[in-house]
From TrEMBL:
PANTHER family: GLUTAMYL-TRNA GLN AMIDOTRANSFERASE SUBUNIT B MITOCHONDRIAL AND PROKARYOTIC PET112-RELATED, GLUTAMYL-TRNA(GLN) AMIDOTRANSFERASE SUBUNIT B, MITOCHONDRIAL. This is Aspartyl/glutamyl-tRNA(Asn/Gln) amidotransferase subunit B. Pfam families: GatB_N, GatB_Yqey. InterPro entries: Asn/Gln-tRNA_amidoTrfase_suB/E, Asn/Gln-tRNA_Trfase_suB/E_cat, Asn/Gln_amidotransferase, Asn/Gln_tRNA_amidoTrase-B-like, GatB, GatB_C_1, GatB_Yqey_C_2, Gln-tRNA_amidoTrfase_suB_CS. Its EC number is 6.3.5.-. It catalyses: L-aspartyl-tRNA(Asn) + L-glutamine + ATP + H2O = L-asparaginyl-tRNA(Asn) + L-glutamate + ADP + phosphate + 2 H(+); L-glutamyl-tRNA(Gln) + L-glutamine + ATP + H2O = L-glutaminyl-tRNA(Gln) + L-glutamate + ADP + phosphate + H(+). It comes from Sphingomonas insulae. PROSITE patterns: GATB. NCBIfam families: gatB, PRK05477.1-2, PRK05477.1-4, PRK05477.1-5. Allows the formation of correctly charged Asn-tRNA(Asn) or Gln-tRNA(Gln) through the transamidation of misacylated Asp-tRNA(Asn) or Glu-tRNA(Gln) in organisms which lack either or both of asparaginyl-tRNA or glutaminyl-tRNA synthetases. The reaction takes place in the presence of glutamine and ATP through an activated phospho-Asp-tRNA(Asn) or phospho-Glu-tRNA(Gln).
Length: 488
């Protein structure tokens, strides 16, 4: 149960949140036509006669889009409806050439499911289950362009007919943090499944944010819907602003109007767009041009067999290997990172050492250089080789850091770097003993203090020895030989 509350003049208020996420289906064609769907194409260059609603054109369902939606439903353990139907949602707008949108209101493809979230990043074991009411498929509308002409708006129909999954949650979230965690988890699942690329900046995933407030334990309040929010951060900001606005309105004696609002990213505020329509306002009816979808057992079995290991299962597998819950959560958050790490393990790296190195050294370097895992100059097999050189004593921790920096710059294999630059760790006891003797001779005061009982100076002698040997001495051997020398 979230302890997030808004403090008003009349006491505490609870926020109730539901999200309707529109996710563009990964497919090389639109939902009812063969037109392309690539992002960034010139306006009106990816429009078929069906998308433009030319007379006599009939829609034909793209079964790859249906397959991806079914796989998504299976990934959240949702009910898959073997029989579903398309409906027409009637409204008139310049970017909707048909005068209606083909959607699924009464009989969606996917029924109830659930997504488990971890609202607290620092405590991934503290989970909450968010219900998913349904997933239905529908076609997107086109886009109005208002900045191309001083007095006219242009219409780009490239997105007209693009396949969307609308994923509708239950109003189970009670804080911006829970909504953010839900959206991140849903995005991760979609990207693992491969049914949506999750690119919110390009509009292939966006959220309509439903918010209402109430006194804790009261009936649900009137909700508003903030449309087309395109980042996790903005979703959380829109919730925070809208909830506080509603509390102020109610405490001033006003009432909340059921309406559609827009979020302004510059000011962090929402504004009214239009009154919220109900289903009957759209005059839904079954689309007469499309037969119902009836899914066969073989199709469903193929969908289920094609699912990859999903984030929760992968995280539990990592934890079973001894990796901490926090690191497992970090490693599974993005599908590319998880696949990279799996390849690292397959190359023979020890799980705990590999997780420590990946989450600290690799991710730190990628952040520092503005790269992501997909553009990492270090491959998983090279990383496994580096970790193996540490494990067998060829490299100390500090030498491994030096080698890694060179790998980042050159892309060379670690063994080559060690050979070319003479960075191999030495365990030659004679050489180390000679350096230790020299260090003790140069620091008589510290030696006297140590032998007088100041044992904390042991680290000082270790550091001086390692420095004198350029970091190439085996630390375990240095420690052993130093203890012996200091005891003499």
């Amino acid at each position: 149960m979230s302890d997030y509350r808004i403090q008003g003049a009349t006491g505490e208020w609870e926020v109730v949140i539901g999200l309707e996420v529109h996710a563009q289906v990964t497919s090389n064609a639109k939902l009812f036509s063969g037109a392309a769907t690539a992002f960034g194409a010139e306006p009106n260059t990816q429009v078929s006669l069906v998308d433009a609603a030319m007379p006599g054109m009939l829609p034909v369902p793209n079964m790859e889009c249906i397959r991806q939606a079914v796989r998504t439903g299976m990934a959240i353990d949702a009910q898959i409806n073997r029989w579903s139907r398309f409906d027409r949602k009637n409204y008139f707008y310049a970017d909707l050439p048909q005068g209606y949108q083909i959607s699924q209101l009464y009989h969606p493809l996917v029924g109830e499911g659930a997504i488990e979230i971890s609202p607290d990043d620092k405590n991934p074991d503290a989970t909450k289950t968010i219900g998913v009411e349904r997933i239905h498929v529908e076609q997107d509308a086109g886009k109005l362009m208002h900045d191309q002409h001083p007095t006219r708006s242009y219409v780009d129909l490239n997105r007209s007919g693009v396949a969307l999954m609308e994923i509708v949650s239950r109003p189970d979230m009670r804080s911006p943090a829970e909504a953010g965690a839900y959206l991140r988890k849903l995005r991760a699942i979609l990207r693992y499944v491969g049914s949506c690329d999750g690119n919110m900046e390009e509009g292939s995933m966006r959220a309509d944010v439903n918010v209402s407030v109430r006194k804790p334990g009261d009936e649900l309040g009137t909700r508003t819907e903030t449309k087309n929010v395109n980042s996790v951060r903005f979703v959380m900001a829109a919730i925070e602003y809208e909830a506080k606005r509603q509390v102020e309105v109610l405490e001033d004696g006003g009432r909340i109007v059921q309406e559609t609002r827009l979020f302004n990213v510059e000011s962090g505020t929402t504004r009214s767009m239009r009154s919220k329509e109900d289903a009957h306002d759209y005059r839904y009816f079954p689309d007469p041009d499309l037969l119902p979808l009836e899914l066969e057992d073989a199709f469903l079995e193929d969908c289920r067999a094609s699912l990859p290991e999903l984030p929760d299962a992968k995280r539990k597998r990592y934890e079973s290997l001894g990796i901490s819950a926090y690191q497992a959560d970090v490693l599974t958050a993005e599908v590319e990172a998880a696949r990279w790490f799996d390849t690292l393990l397959e190359a023979g790296a020890k799980p705990v050492a590999a997780a420590n190195w990946t989450t600290s050294e690799l991710f730190g370097a990628l952040n520092r250089t503005g790269r992501d895992i997909a553009t990492s100059p270090v491959s998983p097999t090279q990383a496994a080789e580096l970790l193996a050189l540490v494990a067998d004593g060829t490299l100390s921790g500090s030498l491994a850091k030096q080698v890694f920096e060179v790998m980042l710059e050159t892309g060379d294999a670690p063994a080559k770097i060690v050979e070319d630059r003479g960075l191999k760790q030495t365990s030659d006891t004679g050489a180390i003993e000679a350096v230790i003797a020299e260090v003790l001779d140069k620091n008589p005061n510290q030696l006297a203090q140590y032998r007088g009982g100041k044992e904390t100076l042991f680290g000082f002698f270790v550091g001086q020895t390692m420095k004198a040997m350029g970091g190439k001495a085996n630390p375990a051997v240095v420690n052993e030989l130093l203890k012996k020398a200091l005891a003499d």
